[in-house]
Amino acid sequence: MTLGSRIAVMKDGVLQQIGTPDDIYRRPANTYVAGFIGSPTMNFIAGSASDTGATGQFSFEGGTLELPCPTHGPVILGQRPEHIHLADDAPWRGEVMLVEPTGADTYVVIKTGAGLVTVRTPPSTQVKMGDSVGLSVSANHNNWFDAQTGLRLG
Predict the structure, then answer these.
(1) 30 band by pLDDT with thresholds 50, 70 and 90
(2) pLDDT band at 27 (very low <50, low <70, confident <90, very high)
(3) Same structural domain for residues 14 and 54?
């Protein structure tokens, strides 16, 4: 993605999105593009949004997060691994399934009620398989998708 000023993402011969690498990474048009671009891929959390606006709630299997939501009803929250953080006091909990040091970063895969979540952490992160950890998300980096169509909301 670093060679072109604009790239196109296609699926089965159908154009999904065209844009700068940064636009496609930060504002994917749908869940296909979001899952295709980036390594590790975006985390997807299926749930329900309510009370849209600055004080919205996103409820999902295993937790509720206070996040501004663009709509009511079934949605998918997409979060890149660098926008989910380990937080001891966070109510969203999970069990560490894998710790993968890669040099500059350590990727931690966590089993939650909502499914597996990958978090990018500093290499100095001290967690091990089997640990119970809390997770928090960065409210400024939400990617919301329609639960039925997979299209980006907002």
Answers:
(1) very high
(2) very high
(3) no
In the chain, the amino acid numbered 5 is: S
> Closest Cα to residue 16, out of 2, 28, 1?
28
Residue 102: closest CA among 39, 21, 37:
39
Cα–Cα distance measured from residue 47 to residue 64, given in angstroms and rounded to the nearest whole number: 9
6 and 73, same domain (yes or no): no
101 prior amide bond cis, ω within 30: no
User: Residue 79: which CATH number?
Assistant: 2.40.50.140
Cα gap 27→132, rounded to integer Å: 31
Residue numbers of the domain that contains 27:
1-38
Same domain, 90 and 121: yes
Please give the pLDDT value at position 56.
86
